User: Fold these one by one.
Assistant:
Number 1:
Amino acid sequence: MPDGDDEERADRAGAVGSAGSSGARPAASPTLPASRELPLFAELPELAGQVPWRPLAHAPTPVVPCGAIEGYLGRGGVWIKRDDLSSPLYGGNKVRRFEFLLADAERRGARTLVTVGGLASTQVTATALFGRALGFAVTAVLFDQPISRFGRSALLADAASGAELVHGGGYATTAFRAIRALRRADRPYFILPGASSALPCLGYVDAMLELAEQVRRGEAPRPDRIIVPSGTGGTLAGLALGAAVLGWPTTIVGVRITDRIASNRTIVRYEIGSMKRLLARRAPRFARRRLPPVRFEIDHRAVGPGYGMPTPASLAAIPEVERLIGVPGEVTYSAKALAALRGIGQEHPRETILLWQTLSSARPALAEGGAAALPPGFARFFEGDVAF
Ligand SMILES: Cc1ncc(COP(=O)(O)O)c(C=O)c1O
């Protein structure tokens, strides 16, 4: 079942779930919280019980000033929202989304999560780890991207989770193999690359409301600008809609890390529109609200030749990410975001800027034995040294 039409899906399921409730399956791991309060349900009480949701995230995640980064950026006034700490199982920006998405899979009685992503995809790793922890079988079809140290670790983490890994190769063969995997899976639930449809992206509307509570408590100033890597635009869209719900004038900047076809204004506007429609249907009072314009920008300068491809600035930023922020420095997400933050920070010296940290700092267990732990199609990704 495609992860596309959440509204229709929620309608058909008569989907339910609420703050503090857990889904149909017991959490099989002590790393999953038993409950938590969702700011989104506090803001829109009608919504609780009308959308599937189960707790997975350890939130609120800290928001901290990052003094260490000031020398690198050449300015102060930069804060970090530590979504890298959103779960000790595997943090990052999929956890809040999976609270909705995997609850939906549970409601529908799915047994197998089928997903697609690049060799180094964090979405695949998150699907594998959270899916297995909740008792699903997981099949991931992986398309080729430049292999890196981070990519090798991601593959070994995926293998250690017990997920079935299928080498997809190019985009066309990956699509074909994903369809084949869906056909033979037991009660499949399909998760699109990036998991960026309306229902899961509510997780980042909620995250923005969480930040607002932290600002109200005096833990951080209200940022003028928030920087977040943008792959499929879902995190950016959720934060931007969240800022509009709050009436904040904050500009959310997506640092594009994928090709323009995957991350562009039209897609982000579409994602915002689908979330608004979903909210209006599930919480009719939301439909009567007058929201200010949603403010977001996409910065296209950091991506270089493409998804996962190195650029001189991102290669230089890799060790800085590790040293200054403490999350893995890798070329696809964290290094490009940091390199972009430096440029944007210098262009807007008077603004308070917040970097939304989206890559897990929890490092999952890796399968032992290297390439031997994976199907033979992956062997070539473990040959020789990698440059970055
Ligand atoms: C670490 C990290 N940051 C940012 C992104 C981009 O998120 P989105 O697809 O919501 O734009 C991803 C997506 O996979 C990610 O893994």
Number 2:
Amino acid sequence: MNDKHPGPLVVEGKLVDAERLKKESNYLRGTIARDLHDGLTGGFNGDNFLLIRFHGMYQQDDRDIRAERAEQKLEPRHAMMLRCRLPGGIITPQQWLAIDTFATANTLYGSIRLTNRQTFQFHGILKKNVKPAHQMLHEVGLDSLATANDVNRNVLCTSNPIESKLHQEAYEWAKKLSEHLLPQTRAYAEIWLDQEKVATTDQEPILGATYLPRKFKTTVVVPPHNDVDLHANDMNFIAIAEKGKLVGFNLLVGGGLSIDHGNKATYARTASEFGFLPLDKTLAVAEAVVTTQRDWGNRTDRKNAKTKYTLERVGVDIFKAEVEKRAGIKFAPIRPYTFTTRGERFGWVKGIDKKWHLTLFIENGRLLDYPGRALKSGIAEIARIHHGDFRLTANQNLIIAGVPESGKSTIEAIARAHGLMDTVSAQRENSMACVSFPTCPLAMAEAERFLPDFVTRVENIMTQHGVGDEHIVLRVTGCPNGCGRALLAEIGLVGKAPGRYNLYIGGNRIGTRIPRMYRENINEEEILADIDQLVARWAQERDADEGFGDFSIRAGVVKPVLDPAHDFWE
Ligand code: HEM
Ligand code: SF4
């Protein structure tokens, strides 16, 4: 469907089961509280299995040992993944120490995973430790509310170590947006924090009694950095400044990356420009976008339920006019903005407050004590003496922010001693993977465990062709759901089956173009052979400063994806 042939505003038909579940959940309570005490299983039963996602948890099991357990006639080893809400990715050292201690003592893997949506996840929390996890978070002023399922999830903000007042202002808006769009139900407080039931009727004025049709993601972006990858998100506020002061936002709606292999009704889509809004309209506009998607999103098919599909069905102009009506605003034309980067600036930078900020590379965002590289202990040691804050980036890295000149050398010494400042190539710095095996129930191929060695092989290819100091934005995602954001990469691998991937080529460095499938269902050797051939051409034939993705398009290696709803599968 395109703008000339808009479809219905509301899709009639049989609602998916998730809608029944939300409706019957009594505002996300279900029978979770009772289920917690069911010692017969390590998991949650029936609807609760999905309901706990609204509370920030996924029930998982270790897929490496699933078959072995089945042979022994044991149920899979259930454990929860818990994802914190951390708008803009900022966390204090005290909070960090609390999560570090918990991860070590109470999770199966002992690690903390920094995610590519600026928060952290614990993997492997047994059922008996779930409530203590929520209580620990609450004690230090954190929660995991609305970090999964059909709600507005953790709000991202361009990571920056207070180098400008603009970033600070943008961050405040990320927090306000997150708070404003949170579920109002008291279910979380009652179940996990033992807070009293209050005798009011629950209401969800923004999200509605059956919440949103599908997950919903929001960002606040400060150009020229597009580190948050706005086009992977439903609602994006691009900061516009006059004389260094924030005056409003450009609003872009309807980005999203998830697809289904071979299902041509699905596609990755970049967000559409709606227009400029003044600051005082921010929350009203956010609310209007969310409620329009709430009312018009397709609740009969979860694979067609995201904002990107609603926009394509009803037409961008009609969706935009409805947002204007609901927010009581007429959008001004988009103000000029440009992006130049998506990556991090590793190492030390000095901020406006004369303090120093250190960006550390954390491969795959996985903080664990490896032999000879005690990364997790190193961060904990820094947290014990650090008076600034920590900032998690949307590239799964970590900034130690707000270090006085006098504290620099101690922090650097700790970081170096724990392998947190080992030199890595530009290629590795610009490579990313989703979690995938062993915990993700949807994984089709390895991603996080595959990436490190794969990058080494790509580095070798780059060196052989004389471009060893340069980089190609390279991402691996274990299945087409796309958590690793491979469909905004210059080279993207999307897992198909164990050891097999679809290879996508032709995104750009700043993340504003969707790549195109170049080869289907190939193994690592075949992928590397293709990369070898393409990098050789890029190294020889490119224009000055031309990125690999841009070159692939100009040289005709792949046709650009210009209008994903119609040409993604061509
Ligand atoms: C239908 C679509 C999707 C489904 C069903 C889905 C499901 C999941 C699941 C089950 C996990 C947990 C894996 C684990 O930690 O063991 C996960 C992780 C994650 N997903 Fe998704 N996902 C989808 C799309 C996306 C997209 C498009 C993005 C971002 C563009 C995204 C961002 C993330 C992030 C940030 C994590 C945390 C770990 C990481 O940094 O890789 N997801 N997702
Ligand atoms: S992309 Fe697939 S395999 Fe990777 S974390 Fe997301 S759902 Fe799991």
